[in-house]
C-alpha cells in the first residue's frame, strides 16, 4: 500500500467523523480540537500522512482544477530549458508571465506555491505540537516527529528559493499573516536544524517495509542537507553531507536511465525521495496527472512544458539521454506508438513523464507514476560541484564520470570521461552535465539562480532566439518571485513585497 493511499481516507474520515457526530452541532465543522484529534497512535499516523499530501501539488495546471507548488512552471518554464506551450500565449497566463518575467503580484503560480507550502508547514507543526503528548510506542513516535521535521524543512526549502525571506512559522498557533518576513538565513538555519534532527532518527531506506516506501529516510534528510548547503554556497558542508549519502551503500545508479522514470522503476535504488501516487480509478483518483499537463494535444493532453531547442542542443553527440528526455513527432515510444507532439511550440515534449499505453488507467493518460525529486544522479553531480570548489579534483572527477558512465548505457565512443583539472573549466563541465542529467526535473531555473548566472543565461537565450522569453530578466529582482498580494493584504502590511514587484 502506497503512502498516498491514505490521502482521501484522511480527508474524509478524520474530518467528517469529527464533524458529523450531530447534524445539529453548531460548532464550526472544519475545526477539530487537539484534544479530540490527537489521542491514539492511529491519529498520529493519519496526521503525519496528511503532512505528505501537499507534496503532490505539481500536478495542477489550471486555476479551476486546484492548487499546488507547480514545480514545472517555477523551475522549468522560468528557465531556458522549457517553453510554456499550451494552446496559446494566454493559455494559463500565470505561466506566460513567468516565462517572460512580466510577473504580477497576483500570479497564480506564486500564490499557489505560497499557500500550498504553508499548508504543509501547518500540518507538520500540528504533528510536532500534538503528537508528543500521545501515549504510543516511543520509537514510532520519534520517527513520526522526525518525518514532520523533514517535511517542514522540505516545504521551507521551496519557500526560501521561491520568495527569499518568508515568515518562519514554527507552531500551529501561529499564522503567516500575523508575522513579518524572517531573513532567509534564519530560515535556512531552521531548515538545517530540522533536517539534522530528522537525520538522527529517520530509518535508512532499506529498513522500511515495502508498505512504507515513500516516507522520509535518513538518506533523504542527508541529501537535502547537502542541497541546502549548496544553495548557501557552503561547499565544505555540502560535500560532507552528499558524501554521507554516497557512502551509505543505500543507493545505486539505475542502469536504465529512462527506466527509472517508469512505474516499473519506482523501486529503483537510485531514488532517494519521491512523491507517490496510486493507480486509482475512484471518484477522486489519487493518480499522477502531470503527464496530462505535458502530453500532446494530439493525444488529449494539454501540451504544456515544451523542451526548447536550446536544451536539446546541450546534449553531446550520441548521448542516449537526449532521446530518453524529449520526444518529437515520428519517434517510436516505449509502448510502440508513433509520437505526435501536436502543436508543441518547440517541436518537442517531455519524455520523462510520458505514460506508455501499458501503464495507463482505463485508456486515459493518467497513471500512478511517482514524481522523483531526489535521486543519486543528482547527489553525485552536486557532490562533484562541491568537491571541485573545495579543491578535491579527483573526487569531483570520479563522481562526474560515474554519472557519464551510466549515461552511456553500453554505447561505446560517446561521453568520454572528463579529465580536465582546472577548477573553472571543470565547474563549467559539471554545470553542463547537471543540465542534461537533470533535464526537465524541476531544477534548472533555481540552479541558474544559485550559480549567480540566471540573468546572463536567460538574456542570452532571448537574444539567441530573438524571443521575449528571458530577455526581460532583471538582475536583483527576478531571482525570486513576488509575494502574493493576497498575503500582503491579509497581513495588514506586515508582510512586505519583494523589490521590483
E-strand count: 6
Question: How many alpha or pi helices?
Answer: 19
User: What general form does the structure show?
Assistant: globular
Cα Rg: 22 Å
CATH class of the domain at 50-202 and 470-501: Mainly Alpha
Provide the helix percentage: 40-55%
Describe the biggest sheet?
2 strands, antiparallel
Assign the CATH architecture of the domain at 50-202 and 470-501.
Alpha Horseshoe
The CA-CA distance between the termini, in Å, is 45 Å
Strand percent estimate: under 5%
Parts with pLDDT < 50 across at least 5 consecutive residues? 1-30, 61-66
Specify the structural class.
Answer: mainly alpha
Side-by-side strand order of the widest sheet: 1-3
Q: Could you state the order of secondary-structure elements as H and E? A: HHHHEHHHHHHEHEHHEEEHHHHHH
Kindly state the mean pLDDT as a whole number? 90
CATH topology of the domain at 50-202 and 470-501: Serine Threonine Protein Phosphatase 5, Tetratricopeptide repeat
Domain RagB/SusD: 270-501
Subcellular location: Cell outer membrane
Organism: Spirosoma sordidisoli
GO cellular component, one term: cell outer membrane
Amino acid at each position: 500500500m502506497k503512502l498516498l493511499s491514505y490521502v482521501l481516507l484522511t480527508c474524509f474520515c478524520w474530518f467528517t467523523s469529527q464533524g458529523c457526530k450531530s447534524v445539529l452541532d453548531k460548532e464550526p465543522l472544519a475545526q477539530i480540537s487537539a484534544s479530540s484529534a490527537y489521542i491514539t497512535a492511529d491519529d498520529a499516523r493519519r496526521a503525519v500522512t496528511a503532512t505528505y499530501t501537499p507534496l503532490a501539488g505539481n500536478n495542477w495546471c489550471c486555476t479551476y482544477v486546484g492548487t499546488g507548488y507547480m514545480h514545472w512552471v517555477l523551475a522549468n518554464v522560468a528557465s531556458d530549458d522549457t517553453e510554456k506551450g499550451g494552446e496559446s500565449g494566454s493559455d494559463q497566463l500565470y505561466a506566460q508571465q513567468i516565462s517572460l518575467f512580466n510577473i504580477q503580484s497576483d500570479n497564480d503560480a506564486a500564490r499557489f506555491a505560497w499557500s500550498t507550502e504553508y499548508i504543509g508547514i501547518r500540518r507538520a507543526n500540528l504533528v510536532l505540537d500534538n503528537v508528543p503528548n500521545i501515549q504510543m510506542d516511543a520509537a514510532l513516535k520519534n520517527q513520526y516527529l522526525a518525518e514532520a521535521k523533514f517535511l517542514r524543512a522540505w516545504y521551507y526549502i521551496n519557500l526560501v528559493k521561491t520568495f527569499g525571506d518568508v515568515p518562519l512559522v514554527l507552531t500551529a498557533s501561529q499564522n503567516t499573516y500575523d508575522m513579518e518576513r524572517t531573513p532567509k538565513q534564519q530560515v535556512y538555519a531552521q531548515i538545517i536544524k530540522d533536517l539534522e534532527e530528522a537525520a538522527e532518527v529517520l530509518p535508512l531506506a532499506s529498513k522500511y517495509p515495502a508498505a512504507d516506501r515513500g516516507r522520509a529516510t535518513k538518506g533523504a534528510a542527508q541529501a537535502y542537507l547537502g542541497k541546502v548547503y549548496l544553495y548557501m554556497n557552503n561547499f565544505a558542508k555540502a560535500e560532507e553531507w552528499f558524501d554521507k549519502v554516497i557512502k551509505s551503500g543505500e543507493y545505486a545508479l539505475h542502469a536504465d536511465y529512462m527506466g527509472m522514470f517508469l512505474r516499473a522503476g519506482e523501486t529503483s535504488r537510485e531514488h532517494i525521495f519521491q512523491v507517490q501516487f496510486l493507480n486509482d480509478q475512484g471518484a477522486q483518483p489519487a493518480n499522477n496527472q502531470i503527464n496530462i499537463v505535458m502530453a500532446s494535444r494530439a493525444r488529449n493532453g494539454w501540451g504544456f512544458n515544451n523542451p526548447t531547442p536550446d536544451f536539446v542542443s546541450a546534449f553531446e553527440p550520441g548521448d542516449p539521454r537526449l532521446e530518453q528526455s524529449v520526444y518529437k513527432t515520428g519517434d517510436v515510444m516505449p509502448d510502440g506508438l508513433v509520437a505526435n507532439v501536436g502543436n508543441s511550440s518547440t517541436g518537442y515534449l517531455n519524455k520523462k513523464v510520458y505514460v506508455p499505453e501499458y501503464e495507463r488507467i482505463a485508456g486515459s493518460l493518467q497513471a500512478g507514476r511517482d514524481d522523483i525529486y531526489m535521486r543519486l544522479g543528482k547527489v553525485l553531480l552536486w557532490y562533484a560541484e562541491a568537491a571541485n570548489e573545495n579543491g578535491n579534483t579527483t573526487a569531483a572527477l570520479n563522481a562526474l564520470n560515474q554519472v557519464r558512465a551510466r549515461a552511456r548505457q553500453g554505447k561505446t565512443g560517446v561521453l568520454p570521461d572528463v579529465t580536465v583539472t582546472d577548477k573553472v573549466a571543470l565547474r563549467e563541465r559539471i554545470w553542463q552535465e547537471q543540465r542534461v542529467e537533470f533535464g526537465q526535473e524541476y531544477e534548472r531555473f533555481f540552479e541558474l539562480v544559485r550559480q549567480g548566472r540566471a540573468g546572463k543565461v536567460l538574456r542570452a537565450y532571448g537574444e539567441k532566439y530573438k524571443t521575449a522569453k528571458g530577455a526581460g530578466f532583471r538582475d536583483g529582482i527576478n531571482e525570486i518571485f513576488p509575494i502574493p498580494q493576497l498575503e500582503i493584504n491579509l497581513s495588514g502590511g506586515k508582510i512586505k513585497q519583494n523589490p521590483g514587484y
